[in-house]
Design a protein that fits this description.
single chain; alpha/beta; 19% strand; binds ligand C2E; binds magnesium ion
C-alpha cells in the first residue's frame, strides 16, 4: 500500500480523505436520525456548595447511545452537531427537557436546585435565541432564577457586542450566566468586565495536576483569587480526588463538580441522590 501511495501520493491522500469524510457523513446521518427519533437523552451531574456540603444544582449533559456504536461521547458528537447546525434544534431540545425535568423535581420537593445548561456559541448566535430561551421558560413554567446558561469564551471573540446585548436581556429576567471551560480559550481577561456574568467554571484541565505540580496549583489558586476579586463565583470542574477537593476548598472555591462527588447520572438516579442529600443523609463526606 505504501508503494502505491509513493506512486501517487495525491490519490492516496484523496482516498484517505474520502474515507474520513464518509465516516463523518455516516455519523452525521446517524446523529440526525437519533435526534429525530428522540433517542438522545440527558444525564445530570450534581454541583456541590463547598461551604454547606449541599447540592447547589446540576448540569444537564447530552447523551447518545447508539445500538452499533455504543455510547458516543459528546466530545465527538457535539462538535459534529455544531458543524452541521444540528446543535440549534438539539440544544433547544436539551433546554426544554432539562427545564421540564427541573420543574418536575421542584413539584416533588427538590427546591433550590439551579439547573445549568450548555449553550453552544453557534446556538447563542441565532437571532432569536433570547425569545427561544424565554419561550422555553414560559412553556415549562420554570422560574428564570433557577436557570444558568453555560457559555464559552469563543462567543465573545466573534460577536461581542451582540452577545452582550442578548445576555443583558436574559440577565434582566433573572437568568444566571457562567463562563464554561474558563482558562482554555480567549486569553485576554479584559472581556470579563463587559459581561453580565455571575460564575466562572474553571476547566478540569487546571485541576488535573493538583497535588502533583506546584505550577498548576499556583495557576488554579490564581484563577480562584482573580474571580473572587471580580465578584464572580467559582465552580471547579473535574474534581476527582480528595486531594483536589481539599485543595480547592482551602482556596475558597465556591462550588465543585466532579466524579469525586458524582458522575453525571440519569434522571432517576439523580433524583434519588438529591433527595438523600437534601435529607442530609449524604453530606459531602469530608466537609
Ligand atoms: P462541559 O460543559 O465542560 O461539561 C463537563 C464535562 O466534564 C462533562 O463531559 C462531564 O461528564 C465531565 N466531567 C465531570 N466531572 C468530571 C471529572 O471529575 N473528571 C472528568 N475527567 N470529567 C468530568 P461530557 O458529558 O462528556 O460532555 C463534554 C462536553 O460536551 C461538555 O463539556 C459540553 O461542552 C458538551 N455538551 C454536553 N452536553 C451538551 C449540551 O446539551 N449542549 C451543548 N451545547 N454542549 C453539550
Ligand atoms: Mg458545561
Ligand atoms: Mg460546556
Ligand atoms: Mg466545562
Amino acid at each position: 500500500r505504501a508503494k502505491e501511495a509513493g506512486k501517487n501520493q495525491y490519490a492516496f491522500f484523496a482516498a484517505e480523505m474520502t474515507q474520513v469524510a464518509k465516516e463523518r457523513l455516516k455519523l452525521e446521518v446517524k446523529l440526525r436520525k437519533a435526534f429525530e427519533q428522540q433517542e438522545l437523552f440527558l444525564n445530570y451531574q450534581p454541583r456541590v456548595n463547598m461551604k454547606t456540603g449541599k447540592m447547589a444544582g446540576m448540569e444537564a449533559l447530552m447523551r447518545w447511545l447508539d445500538l452499533d456504536l455504543g455510547s458516543v461521547s459528546p466530545a465527538e458528537f457535539i462538535p459534529l452537531a455544531e458543524e452541521t447546525g444540528l446543535i440549534v434544534p438539539m440544544g433547544k431540545w436539551a433546554l426544554q427537557t432539562a427545564c421540564r425535568q427541573t420543574r418536575e423535581w421542584q413539584h416533588m420537593g427538590l427546591k433550590n436546585l439551579t439547573l445549568s445548561v450548555n449553550i453552544s456559541t453557534l446556538q447563542f448566535q441565532q437571532a432569536d435565541v433570547v425569545e427561544m430561551i424565554l419561550g422555553v421558560l414560559q412553556e415549562t413554567g420554570l422560574d428564570p432564577h433557577f436557570l444558568e446558561l453555560e457559555l464559552t469564551e469563543s462567543l465573545f471573540m466573534v460577536e461581542r457586542v451582540e452577545a452582550i446585548r442578548k445576555l443583558n436581556l436574559l440577565v434582566e429576567k433573572g437568568i444566571q450566566i457562567s463562563i464554561d471551560d474558563f482558562g482554555t480559550g480567549y486569553s485576554s481577561l479584559n472581556y470579563l468586565r463587559y459581561l453580565p456574568v455571575n460564575v466562572i467554571k474553571i476547566d478540569k484541565e487546571f485541576m488535573r495536576n493538583i497535588g502533583k505540580l506546584a505550577y498548576d496549583e499556583a495557576l488554579a489558586e490564581a484563577i480562584i483569587a482573580m474571580a473572587h476579586s471580580l465578584n464572580l463565583r467559582v465552580v471547579a470542574e473535574g474534581i476527582e480526588t480528595e486531594t483536589q477537593y481539599r485543595f480547592i476548598r482551602a482556596k475558597g472555591c465556591d462550588e465543585m463538580q466532579g466524579y469525586f462527588f458524582s458522575e453525571p447520572v440519569d434522571a432517576i438516579t439523580f433524583e434519588t441522590l438529591a433527595f438523600h442529600v437534601q435529607a442530609d443523609q449524604v453530606k459531602v463526606a469530608l466537609i
